[in-house]
Amino acid sequence: MRPIQKSNKLAEVCYEIRGPVPEKARQMEEEGHKITKLNIGNLAVFGFDPPDEIVQDMKINLHNAAGYTDSKGMFAPRKAVVHYTQGKNIPGVTIEDVYLGNGASELIVMSMNALLNTGDEVLVPAPDYPLWTAAVSLSGGTPVHYVCDEMQDWFPDIEDMRRKINSNTRAIVVINPNNPTGALYPVELLLQIIELARQHQLIIYADEIYDKVLYDGAEHVSIASLADDVLFVTFNGLSKNYRACGYRAGWMVVSGEKGHAKDYIEGLNMLASMRLCANAPGQFAIQTALGGYQSIHDLVGPGGRLLKQRDLAYKLLTDIPGVTCVKPKAALYMFPRLDPKIYPIADDQQFAYELLAETKVLIVQGSGFNWIAPDHFRVVFLPNSDDMIEAFGRIAKFMEGYRKRHGASF
User: Which residues form the Aminotransferase class I/classII large domain (predicted)?
Assistant: First the structure.
C-alpha cells in the first residue's frame, strides 16, 4: 500500500522535550527500569501540589462545567485576568482583550496561526522554549533565532536582533522569565526591545508563564507595562505559578496599540470560536488562583523548597569538572555548559541517549531548545534533595567516564 506521510507542514517542527530520547526512556520504563526525569517541568510528579482552594473550587463547580462557555472564556476568570494585568501595570486591558485557553500552549499556536503567511518571519530567542519555534513553522512562517548571550546572564543580544529584522519580520518573541536559562530581564533591556518593535512596527509576544517563580528577591516587570504604542500579546497561566500543569488553564492578553490590528484580532476571534472554548473545569480554577493566597512565594522565598533545590542543583552541577552554569534568577531549570575541550560532543542528542542508557537519568539536549552548539543541556531542579543528589551523582560519574573515554584531561 502507498505509505501515508505526515504533512509537509511538520517538516521543520520538533519538540525534543517529548522527543526521541524521552521515547527511549518510556521504552526503558516498560522494561522495568526506573527513570529519573529531569526533562520536563511537570511539578505534580515531584510532589508540588496546587493550592487546595483551587482543587476544592473546581470540585464544587464541576457540575456547572459540562456546557460550552463563551469562546473566549467565562466572564469571572477573564475579569480576574484583567485585574491581574492591572496589578502588573499593563494599561488599557478590558475583558474583550482576554482569551482563555487550554494552557498557554494552545494560545501560542493560535496567535501564530492568526498572524503568519508563507514567508513571514518571527524573531525567536536561542535558546528558546521550542513550542515557539514549532508554532511559527507550523503556521507557515519562518522562525529566525536571535542569540541570547550566556556571558551576559543570557540576556538577548540586541544588536543580533537588530541585524535579523527585515521587511518580512512580523514579530519578536520575548520569553521572560526565560525557559530554559532562568534569566530575568531588566527594564532597560525590555525598553530596547520595545524600541526595535516600535521602529519596525512589530508585534511583541511576551511569554511570562514563570512571572512569580522568582528567586533572591527578584522582581518581574511585564514588557507590556512599559509602552502603549506597540501591540503586545502576553501569555500566562496556572501551570507553573500554581503547580496546575494538567488543568490546562492559560490566558492570552492583547494590549497596547490595537487600532491597526483589528483584522488580526478578528482572526484571533475566529480561531477562538473554531475550538469552541477552553475546558470549563480549568476556567473555574483561574479566579480562585489569582485572588487567593500566593503560596508560590513560600516555595521561592528564604527556606522555600524551590530555592533550596535551585541552590543544591547549582552546586552539584558546577562541582563537575568542565561544567559551568549561569545561576537562574527565575523559573525551574538550569542550562549548563559543557566545556568543548573537555567534552568533545559532536551530537548532543546522542550524548543524551548515552547518558540515559548509562545513568537512567533523562535530560534534554541543548539543540532541543534551538541552541547553536552541542555544548549545553537542560535539567529541572524539581526532585527532592535526596533524589537530586542521587541523580546528579550519576550524571557526575557519567561525565567522568565520558572524559576518560574521549581522552580529555582536566
Answer: 34-386
- How many angstroms separate the CA atoms of 349 and 341, rounded? 18
How far apart, in whole angstroms, are the C-alpha atoms of residue 399 and residue 37?
A: 18
- pLDDT at position 407 is 66
Do 232 and 306 fall into the same domain?
no
Residue at a domain's end among 270, 293, 316:
293
The torsion angles phi and psi of 202, rounded to 5 degrees, stand at -105, 155
Question: What are the Cα distances from residue 122, in Å, to 142, 151, 194, 205, 292?
Answer: 6, 25, 15, 10, 37
Q: 3-state DSSP call for residue 25?
A: helix
**Residue range(s) defining the domain that contains residue 225:** 52-293
Question: Structure pTM?
Answer: 0.95
| 285 & 304 share domain | no
The DSSP annotation for 80-124 comes to HHHHHHHHTT-TT--GGGEEEEEHHHHHHHHHHHHH--TT-EEEE
Residues 184, 149 contacting (CB under 8 angstroms)? no
User: At CA 34, angle to CA 32 and CA 38, rounded to 5?
Assistant: 145
Give yes or no: residues 33 and 164 share one domain. no
pLDDT for res 263 = 97
CA-based radius of gyration for the chain: 21
Burial 234-268 (b: 16+ CB within 10 A, else e): bbbbbbbbbbbbebbbbbbbbbbbeeebeebbebb
Task: List % helix, strand, coil for the chain (3-state, nearest 5).
Answer: 45, 15, 40
Tally the C-alpha atoms within 13 A of residue 388's C-alpha that lie toward its C-beta: 21
What was the pLDDT predicted at 404?
87
CA atoms within 13 A of residue 154's CA, in its CB half-sphere: 28
Looking at residue 22, its pLDDT comes to: 85
pLDDT digits (tens, 9 = 90+) for 245-283: 999 999 999 999 999 999 999 999 999 999 999 999 999
Answer yes or no: is 93 within a domain: yes
Task: Note whether 374 and 279 are same-domain residues.
Answer: no
Query: Does residue 88 sit within a domain?
Result: yes
Cα dihedral 91, 242, 239, 365 sign: positive
Q: List the grid coordinates of 278.
A: 477552553
Q: Which residues pair with 98 in a beta bridge?
A: 253
Give the pLDDT confidence of 301-333 residue by residue, as tens digits: 999 999 999 999 999 999 999 999 999 999 999
Q: How many domains does the chain have?
A: 2
